[in-house]
Amino acid sequence: MTVDIFTEFRSEDITDAMLDDAARLFSEQYGIWGVHPPNRKSGKPGTRIRMSASQLRSQCLPEGARCSYVSATVDGTLAGHAFACRWDYKNMQVCWVTQLVVHRDHRQRRLATRIIEKVRKTEDEIFGIISAHPAACMAMSKACADTSFPHFRHPSAPEQVAIMTASPIAHIREAELRGKLFVPADVHTGLHSGVDSNFFVDHEEPFAALAWLEWERLWPLGALPDGHEYLLVFTCRSSRLERAKFLLEPRLKMPSFT
Ligand SMILES: CC(C)(COP(=O)(O)OP(=O)(O)OC[C@H]1O[C@@H](n2cnc3c(N)ncnc32)[C@H](O)[C@@H]1OP(=O)(O)O)[C@@H](O)C(=O)NCCC(=O)NCCS
């Protein structure tokens, strides 16, 4: 098996043919619609969740935004990809993974983690993802954090709101934040940090992963109500950026021992 992780493509270099392949991977591999309440609009339960190339372009690559695409092939066939978007918040660069999919035949082999490792840049300091799949959050944390999952450095809830409000991606900017981190009275759902995205994906596969991660005490984001997705935001500076900022930022003078 030969795995190739391609280098990142910036928005302007992403061709229609690449988007057609990405849309096909998503439509065949992402997941299926689950049951939804009668008052909510959603896909037909049991059918595949699909996305066209033009939907991908408008949702993941909005005009003027700093977006990118990383794909991985196995033996020459597209096996996984990630779309990411960057923006600035208080002099820091945010890196947000807006879509992540790995072909079923290649899951649980760290392919998602390796794709996000390729997405990550030295200048990135704030990382985020919204996903119904705990493995997507785990891959994000393994690729970008310098500490194990439960011990992350998270921005405060109001700061997370401000980071997301600054996003050029509409569904991030307008996300309805849920869970006790954002709505202290929201304890009955068991969700710690998430969004009500009206996304009624079938939870069978994500819940199998969740059961394992909870059993291993690796899961800090709580339970996931139907129609919701997890929200993970954390900060981490690469050591190179840490040193560069140290030299630029005003700091206390060290005492001299003469
Ligand atoms: C979510 C998804 C991208 C993960 O891809 P993957 O290549 O299997 O992920 P990785 O192998 O890199 O796993 C990363 C971590 O997640 C956890 N994990 C992955 N699959 C898991 C599972 N089935 N059960 C428990 N934990 C799991 C592990 O901690 C793993 O790290 P480790 O192998 O070092 O222990 C893939 O399952 C997928 O495409 N799912 C459908 C689409 C989707 O939900 N995408 C996310 C929306 S943004």
TrEMBL record:
GO terms for molecular function: acyltransferase activity, transferring groups other than amino-acyl groups. Gene3D superfamilies: 3.40.630.30. Residues 62-120 form the N-acetyltransferase domain. This is N-acetyltransferase domain-containing protein. Signal peptide: none annotated. SUPFAM superfamilies: Acyl-CoA N-acyltransferases (Nat). It holds the Pfam family Acetyltransf_1. InterPro entries: Acyl_CoA_acyltransferase, GNAT_dom.
